[in-house]
Write a structure and sequence with these properties.
This protein is mainly alpha-helical. The protein has helices spanning 3-31, 40-60, 67-96, 99-106, 109-112, 118-143, 145-154, 161-171, 177-180, 191-213. It has one domain (3-189). It has ten helices and no strands. Helix 1 (3-31) packs antiparallel against helix 2 (40-60), helix 1 (3-31) packs antiparallel against helix 6 and helix 3 (67-96) packs antiparallel against helix 6 (118-143). Mean pLDDT is 79; it is low at 109-113 and 192-214.
Length: 214
């Protein structure tokens, strides 16, 4: 797997972690008796699309490659399984998760002594994948500054804007999900936007400092 492919796969994995993370509360809400949200069908479609992307990523990340590539391949497999399981559960709850059905389930003795639900198990698995990405794989990638700079210099013109921002984030040492992903859209945070916001804050601070001396 080439360097660019590795960063592309890592970028897709982090976006998959974000999107599955936003789908889990919907499953929990339905299970707790809330009516299915209007956007459940589109969320199921979104999860299926993510699964297809992860399927393609499996072909790039070899379980027999270097250690970092092996770990990335394992996480891709884990995220693919988790995404498919989550889509299956969300589809099931969409069809059977009416408040009356859930209330009937809750009235049974088994509900109160049930083992950890499948949704909770999927969530645990995804959170574990997130920690591995943030604390190991992305940290290692961010340490290879020469490769990151070379990639931004040589391939930036042909690189998709989201991937370019992702690589720039790693070069800047940003490896946490909230630093990389825009919460509402699930897209990679634009580095340009961040730099613009930093500049705006600096101007505001300098303006306040100037006024305080007048």
């Amino acid at each position: 797997m080439s360097g660019l492919e590795a960063f592309s796969v890592a970028c897709n994995v982090m976006q998959a972690i974000h999107f599955t993370g936003t789908a889990i509360p919907i499953c929990k809400d339905i299970y707790e008796g809330c009516s299915p949200a209007p956007g459940v069908e589109s969320r199921c479609s979104e999860l299926r699309s993510i699964a297809l992307d992860l399927e393609n990523d499996r072909k790039k990340a070899s379980p027999n490659g270097p250690e970092n590539e092996k770990q990335l391949a394992r996480i891709v497999d884990s995220m693919l399984a988790g995404t498919l399981e989550l889509e299956k559960e969300l589809s099931k709850l969409r069809n059977t998760g009416s408040p009356s059905i859930v209330a009937a389930v809750k009235n049974t003795r088994l509900y109160y002594f049930r083992p950890k639900s499948k949704i909770e198990k999927i969530e645990d698995k995804i959170r574990n994948d997130e920690k591995l990405m943030e604390s190991r794989i992305l940290v290692r990638m961010s340490k290879d500054q020469d490769a990151l700079q070379a990639m931004l210099s040589a391939e930036a013109r042909n690189m998709p804007s989201e991937l370019k921002s992702f690589v720039q984030h790693l070069k800047d040492g940003n490896t946490r999900l909230e630093q990389l992903i825009e919460n509402k859209t699930g897209e990679i945070n634009s580095v340009v936007q961040k730099e613009g916001e930093t500049m705006r804050q600096t101007v505001v601070a300098e303006s306040k400092a100037t006024r305080s001396h007048l």
